[in-house]
Amino acid sequence: MRPRSLTRNDARAIFATGDSSLLDVIDNLLTKGVVVSGDVVLGLAGVDLVYARLSLLLCAADRLDNPDEPDGK
Amino acid sequence: MSEVYVYALLGDAPAPDAGAGLREEPLRLVRVGDLLAAVGEMSEPPAVSEATLRAHDAVVRRLADGVDAILPVRFGAVLSESSLADVLHARARELSEALALVAGRQQMTLRVLGDAAASVAPVADAASDADAGPGARYLATRRAAWRRAREVPELAPLRPALEGLTRAERVTRHDTAPLLASVYHLIDRGAAPAYRTAIERFVSTDVRVVATGPWPPYAFAPEALG
């Protein structure tokens, strides 16, 4: 299976978790300058989206290499 | 030469020992000048997943508990030992200064949430000065943008309560409302309860602030290996 980068759907999945500390872990550990490829499927059940968390993760996602962004530039 | 995965830069050897890495590989310390790098043998970075991110964070936290000063290295840094030595050598002074700043300290993270439209602070418009040439106007615009990216006017009412607690600050402004800014504060170890109390007492009709931590000082570590 071809590795892929973090997409906005992954972002939604991540934000669906009730565990906000994961967002901080992502913010702390992934950032510009570190090239991240491979699966970022975090396997989290999609339930309630928390809007603020979503925007936070999108910030983190924007820092990743994202060649496969479906609605990309 | 062997490839290593780098977890953190340390000022001293951790007590009781460096322990194991995210793949249970034994960690060892590579000394370059005054710096120690905590590394594990690894030929390629692990795939990014919740489990590997958390495992990396757990290793950094354990190392942080065993030393006074730690500069966490972000996820995925695999390089040869000779490249590691070259990089640390070239940036020795900057990294030593960063280590001194974080010694005995840890990080709190503040998320500032609110209405984006109301948050745009007026900026003195030096760029419109009719007497200035195009070069000066350009520089003034750049300077204003630089300043704006590092300011959090929304937190002004909170500043007095935080003054005695924060030792350094990093700011990232976001354009994804309602998240307006992430503010990273360096506080003394053990000061997290006092910091949280200050945040909880902060009442504002304009913004909401959410604090997490304490964290190892990720935001205060230069991107040494990026």
Characterization of the model:
The complex is a heterodimer of chains A (73) and B (226). Chain A has one domain. In chain A, helix 1 packs across helix 3 (51-62). Chain A has 73 residues and is mainly α. Mean pLDDT of chain A is 47; it is low at 1-5, 32-54 and 63-73. Chain A is built from 3 helices and no strands. Chain A is 40% helix and 0% strand. Chain B has 226 residues and is an alpha+beta fold. In chain B, strand 2 and strand 3 form a beta hairpin. In chain B, 33% of the residues are buried.
* CATH C-level of the largest domain in chain B: Alpha Beta
Q: Which pair of chains has the greatest number of interface residues, and how are they split between the two chains?
A: A-B, 32 and 32 residues
Radius of gyration of chain A: 12 Å
Low-confidence stretches of chain B: none
The low-pLDDT segments of chain A are: 1-5, 32-54, 63-73
Strand content of chain B: 25-35%
Helix content of chain A: 25-40%
Share of residues in strands of chain A: under 5%
Q: Look at the helices and sheets of chain A and give the structural class.
A: mainly alpha
What is the tally of beta strands of chain A? 0
Q: How many H/I helices of chain B?
A: 7
Mean of the pLDDT scores of chain A? 47
Instruction: Estimate percent helicity of chain B.
Output: 25-40%
| Form type of chain B | globular
| Cα-to-Cα separation, first versus last residue of chain B | 20 Å
Which outline of chain A best applies? globular
The major pleated sheet of chain A works out as: none
- CATH-derived architecture of the largest domain in chain B: 2-Layer Sandwich
How far apart lie the N and C ends of chain A? 24 Å
